[in-house]
DNA sequence: CTGAAAGCGCTAACAA
DNA sequence: TTGTTAGCGCTTTCAG
């Protein structure tokens, strides 16, 4: 048995034997339990590292009834083309991942295909995850509400002003819509088109902000309701130009991707941006800075929001309650609009 | 005890009691084991659904030593600004998620922050996941190699021509680089700049394809080596124009984001695209179609690649071996280059 | 085709 | 500060 292949996977008991202590001591040490003397803890941790030992998460989860996993569901509206490729949503997922990691939590990426409709059952009863972060409210909150009512720790990225019995973190979309519109008005725009789908919760708020700004200025509103994609925006603006000519001098787009689609339609017809039509987007994705002209946009603080989402989820995991919260928003002024 | 709150989480044994069968029968039925009569299976499955029952994955994983989870690691080069926000990488993750889901596998999203350097230990020994999909080779394959050598089921999205003892799936980058360059040459370009970092494995192949095409045409090469971001591309082209003037009439960009950065620099100086400078990108992200002028690009078939990655991982999980594989590539001709 | 029973590897209550 | 021990809920071998 000399030099036998060290094939077998070490378990806690083996490590304990090696160290000459009990399994509980090793378990506590590796979980950094202060009951164990610091010295012993450090020694055992080092032994574990030396032997390339890792706790079996399956066993640990079974015993402790905790997973340290959070499910993140990207919650698309059915009937939209907005997809997993949407740069903004993915940016949010990336930020959430970072925020979770900082708390020692892992991210199980999911979608409705796997999770079905009964999220409480799929994720929580099954001990796949301890809680859920939903990215996007969708048009129908049924699944979210069902999960929240079942007592699932859950937070949502969306419109914080939506009445709900679960915490929603998101930007101040009303103020964002108002800021963008006021900025366009200040630049001299008189006929500002709202480009997007006001039926969507967050976008609805942006739309109301837009209306509020127009009201104050006694200007008229005009909505081009489209699916929230570049392509739909491109076609929407194209069609508007074909049927009604250049009947507007400003566009408040509900997202940067939508704004960029509109921009393409304008540029193809040699409509000058911002002189003939001024344009403001929403989200401040990387492309806003790199488009030509660069795109003025309302910047959403996704990093701050992600930290808040995780904090509020953690609070619920510890039995506390958490409230919806609005994250500040900011106009980034670039070339597509006039100062 | 009438109508007592059905608070307690059902377990397999409870369900078995309700059905009047043994736990093994229920377990088998829910796992669709053909040992159990189809009729019984269906009956038990329905009972489970009725009672909102879900298997405890922790227990099941502990017992069966299988997780049905795949870890996906986004493997950035250190020293690049290319980030979790890169639309192409995220698109790949999205496609992988879909491909995994179709096989009943779940996606644990990870990064080096959580996983550290010893992936075998962190993911596999700990039973967090059954296998690993690495998105991006990075410049240093040490972590990947260590994991592969430890016998971890593992596949990589990257340059399939890199010699390795693990399967790499990726595009035919050499042909992509050649196609793009040939296309620029055919459009009349004589001085084509390669914009990107040839030190990166995939981009190196694209560069070699570019060189091969230039060689055949007896044209001279010129590299602008930059970090793989829009911003770096913008500054790189700007600087080239400042120091050497318009000394080129074509750009082969190593990615669409890079191409869009270059496009901005050109447009700001009123350099006509494609007349003064023709431009081809790589990846065919959504923005390529929506930029103005729209961006010719080499389309990577990420969907096909993702399916292959999952297939090859599955093969390894079943003890079979798998080889690297090249996925076909295609030029998408748009306005930024001449026919 | 179904049941009985053992045990996966860990944590935590209780004991010392 | 550490050890002993029971048991988390499932799957699977073996027996029928």
Provide a quick synopsis of the model.
The structure is a homodimer of 339-residue chains. Chain A is of the alpha/beta class. Chain A is built from 14 helices and 12 strands.
3D structure, described in words:
The structure is a homodimer of 339-residue chains. Chain A has helices at residues 12-19, 23-30, 38-50, 57-64, 87-102, 112-115, 119-125, 142-149, 173-186, 201-217, 230-244, 256-268, 286-290, 302-317, and strands at 69-74, 106-110, 131-135, 154-157, 168-171, 192-195, 221-224, 250-253, 278-283, 296-300, 325-327, 329-332. Chain A is α/β, with parallel strands linked by helices and 339 residues long. Chain A has 3 domains: 2-54, 434 Repressor (Amino-terminal Domain) (Orthogonal Bundle); 69-171 and 301-328, 3-Layer(aba) Sandwich (Rossmann fold), CATH 3.40.50.2300; 173-300, Rossmann fold (3-Layer(aba) Sandwich), CATH 3.40.50.2300. In chain A, strand 9, helix 13 and strand 10 (296-300) form a beta-alpha-beta unit. The longest helix of chain A has 17 residues, at 201-217. The interface between A and B is large, with 57 and 59 residues. Strand 2 (106-110) of chain A pairs antiparallel with strand 2 (106-110) of chain B, so a sheet runs across the interface. Chain A binds a DNA duplex (16 and 16 nucleotides) through residues 11-13, 21-25, 27-28, 31, 35-37, 40, 55-65, 127.
């Amino acid at each position: 048995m000399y030099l036998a292949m060290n094939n077998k996977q070490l378990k806690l008991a083996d490590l304990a034997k090696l160290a000459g202590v009990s399994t509980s001591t090793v378990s506590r040490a590796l979980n950094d339990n202060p009951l164990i003397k610091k010295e012993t803890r450090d020694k055992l941790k080092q032994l574990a590292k030396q032997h390339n030992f890792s706790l079996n998460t399956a066993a640990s989860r079974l015993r402790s009834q905790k997973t340290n996993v959070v499910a993140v569901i990207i919650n698309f509206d059915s009937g939209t083309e907005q997809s997993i490729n949407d740069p903004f949503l993915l940016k949010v997922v990336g930020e959430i991942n970072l925020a979770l990691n900082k708390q020692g939590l892992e991210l199980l990426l999911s979608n409705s295909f796997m999770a079905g409709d009964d999220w409480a059952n799929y994720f929580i009863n099954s001990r796949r995850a301890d809680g859920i972060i939903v990215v996007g409210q969708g048009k129908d909150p049924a699944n979210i509400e069902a999960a929240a009512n079942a007592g699932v720790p859950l937070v949502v990225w969306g419109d914080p002003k939506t009445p709900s019995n679960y915490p929603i973190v998101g930007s101040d979309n009303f103020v964002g819509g108002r800021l963008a519109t006021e900025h366009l008005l200040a630049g001299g725009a008189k006929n500002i088109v709202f480009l997007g789908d006001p039926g969507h919760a967050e976008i609805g708020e942006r739309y109301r902000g837009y209306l509020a700004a127009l009201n104050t200025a006694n200007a008229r509103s005009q909505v081009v309701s489209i699916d929230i994609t570049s392509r739909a925006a491109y076609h929407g603006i194209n069609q508007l130009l074909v049927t009604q000519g250049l009947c507007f001098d400003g566009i408040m787009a509900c997202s940067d991707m939508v704004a960029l689609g509109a921009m393409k339609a304008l540029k193809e017809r040699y409509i000058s941006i911002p002189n003939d039509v001024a344009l403001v987007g929403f989200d401040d994705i990387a492309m806003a800075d790199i488009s030509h002209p660069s795109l003025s946009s309302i910047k959403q603080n996704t990093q701050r929001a992600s930290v808040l989402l995780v904090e509020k989820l953690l609070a619920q995991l510890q039995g506390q309650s958490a409230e919806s919260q609005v994250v500040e928003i900011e106009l980034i002024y670039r070339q597509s609009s006039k100062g």
